[in-house]
Amino acid sequence: MIYKPCQKLFIKKHALVLIAQIEHWAKFHKIKFKHTQHNHLRNVIDFVDFPIDNIDVSIVDYRLFFTIRVNDLDLMNKISENLPKNCDNLVLVIDKYRIGPKESLIMNEEGMTAAKEMIINNVLSKVYDAVYF
Fold first, then answer.
1. CA dihedral defined by 109, 107, 16, 9, rounded to 10 degrees?
2. Mean pLDDT score across all residues of the chain
3. Most exposed residue of 15, 49, 110, 123, measured as fewest CB within 10 angstroms of its CB?
4. Distances from the Cα of 117 to the Cαs of 8, 40, 59, 81, 113, in angstroms?
């Protein structure tokens, strides 16, 4: 798909807002991380000394997709019991070490809100609570 210049700015803005919210959460909880921007369509946040290895946010055909890699299977099983199976018509898919949406999200306000809810509230916060509390 060929993007128009205004679409590229829109996509980049929304992706960076989502990344900034994740980074803000990590800074608030004093978790070290490294943000790598491969291009305007793919960003990876690598965590240091945290059970989540990385969050890979990518945009394919004007749709947002992300995967969260958890490096502890016991923790994955513990938090997977508490993860909602349906969040705004969004199903979480869990394979051996990765969590992500079954279908990609549309790049609009609702899609960005759903992505933020899933990443920060349903995964990062639950992992943090399980490990530190």
1. -110
2. 84
3. 49
4. 24, 22, 18, 17, 6
